[in-house]
């Protein structure tokens, strides 16, 4: 429909059946003058002597709207006239050719003229002649507008007797131009140029200087462009004959091909005329004291009035042309009037595709198309054929079932949406687009202005992104009513790096903070978390109790899906304390404390006291169990694994290993081996009984003492009820975050066991199965299909997994994934020696860096870690506790004040800087760094290579 503002001014337009039918580029009212004039009944009625008032056309800024009912009426009359007498068609085409010839001659003449000495009357004569001749030529374009109604009806009858599988190929043949057009002649001439012959290249430019000109804007072709085109030149395909047709049908086919020649020639002549007319237009613009763009923005009648009388009309702002019956009107209006987005058109293909849009401002820009892009254009011309083969999809403003774009899309099996009316005005080059040919829709999923920030990194491949990412969008919304609109993972070296958009970070912080400020929500949420965590732990235990190898693939899939859903549900609760929300909570808490007159130093003291944990988790329980076993070993004088496993304590060690080995699965499918527990146990056995007993007592917090300490702190600093609630929330959710993490650690262990079994049945390695999605596992069970080795290798090389605007996930691999990441995501830092984050626990130390890398054997890395190291990692997890005990400081890429790193660093009293974003990228193993946790800064003092 037309915008309401136009319908209000022209109520008679309400009766029309309007649709967007293409776009004309640039702020060029002059161009619209030509088309509007061409659509006048006085010209249209001369075509075939058809008496039909079809000229109901509206231009709004760059958009063209047609009254389709009138167009169909006009098309009906023309088709009937041609079917009655094909020679009338031939006569019309002859007139079309004459109009093209006149414009061609005018363009050649204009190129040789100088207008410097022309008077205004002479300029008016030249301008008037140009407008008249262009109008005559453009008028014939209406016969093949969108290439849908008239050509389709003419060909339909001939195709009925052709097998369906041959129709697409036959349509392509029919729509071939009968003769070589100007650009085809130019292409032949280009093929004759000798390589590196500068003289021939310059002569070619002199002969065809207009190749880059379009819509009355001149851009001379360059030598570099000619050379590039020569390098890409492919042999021209021979045209095929039409043995299927004879007699009248053959004659009609020949006329349609002639029409295609003239239609293509008309567009090329507009390019030529755009170049040739430049001198005339520049001279008139100079007389009017206007820039060239200001000149083009005028109406043709205003230009003619100036040339006749010397008076100027100033046109600014938005505009609309309304052509109804015998009236043509220019309506200025505010440019803010919204156009309705047209998402209908002709869909070709069944595959929903995603890709980066490349919007063609000029047909020659099609040569820039890459394989991961969706080509967006007003129309597709034969000269773009070789470029369409590179496109992932096609979207056009104009075009129908018999258009060149439609024929190519079917032949090349490229998804397409044609005749949308406004794609080039709705999309920009660089936009990430979803093209759905079945639903006849295109949708911008990601624009180039949206900024993303690296937020975290986790291990494993595509399967982990498939498990984890939707939780931020959907499961988080189940808990707090709002999830992320956009989230992107890059996957490389078995490492997932997560990115949030800046707007997501802002609004999720606001939504989460609002909920956490409610005592009722916090109380209810804690109850739900306990129920969800217990359910997940129990189900994971039951999965590991199943003899997976003996299960049918259907039963195995059932367990897999149930576990997948339960893990995702638990993540929804984990995400209540995600960085977006914890950062907002921390900032709000500090603001509240500052308003109470508490300075930054005192705030840290308050946080250290108020956030001491009063609840234990399985991490503390495991450590306490090991310490108690070490006490029993004190007098046994055992100092090796062999002695230990042959002693009376062997069963205790085996039971401990069986009970807790899964805790290494926090971020992968690892399990702690027996050696890991033996080494820890023997280390503890070397400590004194007093130190062991003290460590055991420390694993059981004294809740009364902690409560008294908090009460004293509140009294000392006169903390408000609001401040106390916020501090309680931070402490409570620090524990909740770890509680859920431990529950999903056990679940991920069970998940890994199922994935290993699927890997065995699918003939994949344990590494390869991590690059298979849940949907693909389901397809394996249902249809015995397995992801190809080539696709898996591309995903392992580099992959992107994204959810944009809460749409279903997008998975890209290899070069396409790299192109996406390079275009939309921030690059990793380089050449820096310092990172900044937030204080997890204050203090300052210096020491060598130990990077705990993702995707590698974490147990082995921890065993090889030297005591006294600065632990630098993405985030700390339960399986890192031994490494944390060896550390003098912790530095993490991600996390907030409620993170595990902040929690354990406060417990152990070591400096901690959290949320540096890039610590693992900036530093290397062996670098000597200073960790200034008071200021939240980590600096390289000496590089490992130095």
Structure description:
The radius of gyration is 36 Å and the shape is elongated. By secondary structure, the chain is an alpha+beta fold. The strands form four sheets. It has an eight-stranded mixed beta sheet with strand order 18-25-24-20-21-22-23-19. The protein has a seven-stranded mixed beta sheet with strand order 6-10-9-8-7-11-12. Strands 1-3-2-4-5 form a five-stranded antiparallel beta sheet. Strand 8, helix 16 (385-388) and strand 9 form a beta-alpha-beta unit. The longest helix has 42 residues, at 721-762. Helix 23 (579-595) runs antiparallel to helix 31 (721-762) and helix 25 packs across helix 28 (674-685).
Largest sheet: 8 strands, mixed
The portion of residues assigned to helices is 40-55%
Percent of residues in beta strands: 5-15%
Q: Care to count the β-strands?
A: 25
Q: How far is it from the N-terminal to the C-terminal residue, by CA?
A: 69 Å
Structure class: alpha+beta
Ranges where pLDDT stays below 50 over 5 or more residues in a row are 334-343
Described by the principal axes of the CA atoms, the overall outline is elongated
């Amino acid at each position: 429909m037309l915008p309401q503002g136009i319908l209000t001014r022209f109520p008679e337009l309400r009766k029309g059946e309007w649709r967007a039918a293409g776009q004309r580029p640039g702020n060029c009212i002059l161009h619209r003058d030509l088309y509007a004039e061409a659509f006048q009944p006085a010209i249209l009625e001369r075509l075939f002597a058809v008496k039909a008032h079809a000229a109901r056309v509206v231009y709004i800024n760059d958009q063209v709207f047609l009254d389709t009912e009138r167009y169909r009426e006009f098309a009906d009359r023309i088709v009937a006239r041609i079917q009655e007498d094909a020679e009338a068609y031939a006569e019309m085409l002859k007139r079309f050719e004459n109009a093209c010839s006149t414009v061609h001659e005018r363009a050649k003449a204009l190129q040789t003229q100088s207008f410097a000495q022309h008077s205004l009357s002479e300029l008016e004569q030249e301008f008037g002649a140009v407008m008249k001749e262009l109008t005559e030529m453009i008028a014939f374009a209406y016969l093949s507008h969108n290439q849908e109604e008239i050509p389709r009806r003419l060909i339909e009858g001939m195709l009925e007797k052709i097998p369906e599988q041959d129709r697409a190929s036959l349509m392509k043949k029919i729509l071939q131009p009968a003769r070589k057009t100007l650009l085809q002649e130019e292409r032949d001439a280009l093929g004759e140029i000798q390589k590196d012959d500068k003289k021939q290249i310059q002569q070619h430019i002199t002969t065809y200087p207009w190749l880059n000109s379009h819509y009355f804007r001149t851009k001379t072709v360059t030598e570099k462009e000619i050379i590039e085109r020569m390098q890409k030149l492919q042999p021209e395909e021979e045209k095929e004959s039409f043995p299927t047709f004879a007699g009248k049908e053959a004659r009609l086919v020949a006329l349609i091909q002639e029409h295609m020649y003239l239609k293509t020639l008309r567009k090329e002549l507009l390019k030529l005329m755009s170049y040739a007319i430049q001198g005339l237009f520049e001279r008139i613009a100079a007389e009017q004291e206007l820039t060239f763009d200001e000149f083009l923005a005028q109406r043709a009648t205003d230009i003619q009035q100036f040339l006749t009388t010397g008076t100027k009309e100033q046109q600014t702002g938005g505009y609309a042309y309304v052509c109804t019956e015998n009236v043509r009107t220019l309506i200025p209006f505010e440019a803010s009037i919204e156009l309705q987005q047209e998402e209908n058109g002709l869909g070709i293909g069944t595959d929903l595709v995603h890709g980066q849009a490349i919007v063609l401002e000029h047909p020659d820009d099609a040569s820039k198309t890459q394989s991961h892009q969706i080509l967006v254009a007003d129309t597709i011309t034969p000269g773009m054929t070789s470029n369409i083969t590179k496109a992932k999809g096609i979207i056009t403003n104009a075009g129908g079932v018999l258009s060149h774009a439609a024929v190519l899309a079917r032949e090349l099996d490229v998804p397409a949406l044609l005749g949308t009316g406004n794609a080039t005005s709705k999309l920009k080059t660089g936009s990430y687009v979803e093209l759905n040919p079945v639903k006849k829709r295109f949708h911008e999923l990601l624009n180039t202005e949206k900024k993303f920030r690296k937020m975290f990194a986790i291990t494993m491949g595509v399967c982990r992104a498939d498990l984890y990412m939707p939780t931020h969008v959907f499961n988080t919304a189940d808990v707090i009513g709002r999830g992320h609109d956009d989230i992107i993972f890059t996957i490389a070296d078995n490492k997932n790096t997560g990115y949030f958009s800046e707007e997501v970070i802002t609004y999720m912080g606001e939504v989460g903070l609002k909920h956490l400020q409610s005592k009722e929500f916090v109380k209810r949420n804690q109850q739900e978390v306990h129920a969800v965590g217990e359910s997940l732990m129990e189900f994971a235990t039951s999965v590991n109790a199943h003899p997976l190898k003996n299960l049918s693939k259907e039963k195995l899939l059932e367990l897999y899906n149930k576990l997948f859903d339960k893990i995702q549900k638990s993540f929804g609760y984990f995400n209540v304390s995600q960085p977006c929300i914890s950062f907002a909570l921390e900032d709000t808490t500090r603001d509240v404390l500052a308003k109470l007159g508490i300075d930054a130093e005192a705030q840290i003291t308050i946080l250290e006291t108020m956030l001491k944990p009063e609840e234990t988790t399985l991490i503390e329980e495991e450590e306490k169990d090991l310490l108690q076993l070490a006490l029993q070993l004190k007098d046994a004088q055992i100092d090796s694994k062999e002695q230990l496993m042959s002693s009376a304590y062997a069963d205790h060690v085996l039971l401990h290993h069986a009970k807790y080995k899964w805790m290494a699965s926090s971020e992968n499918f690892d399990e702690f081996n027996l050696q890991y527990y033996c080494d820890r146990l023997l280390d503890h056995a070397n400590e004194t009984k007093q130190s062991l007993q003290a460590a055991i007592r420390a694993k059981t917090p004294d809740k009364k003492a902690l409560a008294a300490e908090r009460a004293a702190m509140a009294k000392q600093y006169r903390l408000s009820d609001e401040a106390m609630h916020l501090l309680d929330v931070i402490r409570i959710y620090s524990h909740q975050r770890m509680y859920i993490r431990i529950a999903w650690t056990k679940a991920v262990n069970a998940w890994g066991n199922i994935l290993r079994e699927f890997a065995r049945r699918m003939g994949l390695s344990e590494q390869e199965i991590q690059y298979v999605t849940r949907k693909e596992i389901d397809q394996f069970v249902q249809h015995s299909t397995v992801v190809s080795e080539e696709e898996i290798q591309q995903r392992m090389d580099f992959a992107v997994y994204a959810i944009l605007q809460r749409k279903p996930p997008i998975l890209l691999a290899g070069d396409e994934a790299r192109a996406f990441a390079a275009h939309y995501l921030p690059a990793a830092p380089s050449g820096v020696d310092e990172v900044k984050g937030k204080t997890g626990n204050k203090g300052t130390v210096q020491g060598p860096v130990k990077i705990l890398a993702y995707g590698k054997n974490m147990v082995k890395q921890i065993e090889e870690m030297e005591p006294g190291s600065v632990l630098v990692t993405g985030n700390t997890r339960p399986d890192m506790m031994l490494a944390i005990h060896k550390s003098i400081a912790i530095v993490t890429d991600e996390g907030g004040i409620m993170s595990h790193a902040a929690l354990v660093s406060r417990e152990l009293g070591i400096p901690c800087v959290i949320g540096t974003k890039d610590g693992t990228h900036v530093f290397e193993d062996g670098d000597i760094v200073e960790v200034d946790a008071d200021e939240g800064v980590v600096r390289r003092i000496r590089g490992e290579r130095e």
